[in-house]
Each structure stands twice: as structure tokens, then as C-alpha cells.
Amino acid sequence: MQNVLVIILRYLFLLVLYLFLIYTLAQMFRFLKNQDRTQNLHDGAKENISEAQLVKINEGELPCIYPLRDTLNIGRHDDNDIVIADSKASRHHARIHNNHGQYWIEDLNSKNGIYLNDIKLSGPVVLADEDKLSIGNVTFVFVRWGHEVEQGDTRWAGAQC
Length: 161
What we know:
Layout: H1 2-44, E1 53-56, E2 64-67, E3 71-75, E4 82-83, E5 94-99, E6 102-107, E7 115-116, E8 119-120, E9 125-126, E10 131-135, E11 138-143, H2 146-150, E12 159-160
Parallel strand pairs: 2-12, 3-4
Antiparallel strand pairs: 1-2, 1-11, 3-5, 5-6, 6-9, 7-8, 7-10, 10-11
């Protein structure tokens, strides 16, 4: 009787082990499939998604989210991608552009300059996640991974602008 019980327990253990391995493999393939689909969306621009965003976070206002593409111009003039209604902002104040997956910000010879994390820029700089940009009296936060905003990170919850 004891031998039969040991044999049954061995088979049950093997069954649980095989089920665990099958479940693990299924999860890995599902993850890889989703990764591939997300990569194809980024590469092919099939949907309007962005891996980086600029979030306007002025006090007393709801945050305003600007998805970043290859180039984004900021300034007071109407032909900019982000128009700032601030007398301290130049007509064409700054440009953010994507260069091989890195987002760079550069001052376009503005009068009052750009402050990155409270330091005045002296040349083009690569942006890092959660960098604060100040142009005149307007403050932006650079969010590197757009899904953080989309998935409800309440710090940057706001409207698409």
C-alpha cells in the first residue's frame, strides 16, 4: 500500500512540474508576442503613440501632455508646435528633436534662455526622464516613457494637448 502511495505522489509531482513548465513557457511567449507588437507599433507608427512626452505642469493649471515625435518647436509664435503665451518666451525659443532614440533640447538663441533642472543651458543637451524644463514662467517635465503617463501615473495626469 505504501509503495502505491509513493508512486501516485511521484506522478502527481511530475504532473504539477509539467503544468508549471507549460504555464511558464506560455507566459514567456505571450510576453514576447506583446513586446514584438509594441515594437512594431513604434517602428511603423501604426498608432498615435509616443515613447516620450512633454508635460506642462504650471501651478494652478491641469497638466497638459504633448507627445514627442522627431522634432518639436516651442515658442511664442503661432507656427510652433507648443505655443507659450508668455512675454519671457521668445518667438522661436527652443527645439526638442529625436536623434537615434535620444531626445535633445536646444536653445534657439532665445533672450531669456532655457533652464533644465534649474540650470541655464549653454548648448544642446540630452533629456533624461523627469527632467524639468523652464521656459519663461512655463514649466514642463520630460517623461521618457509615454506608457507611464498613459497608465495613470497621477503625477502627470492631465489632458492631451
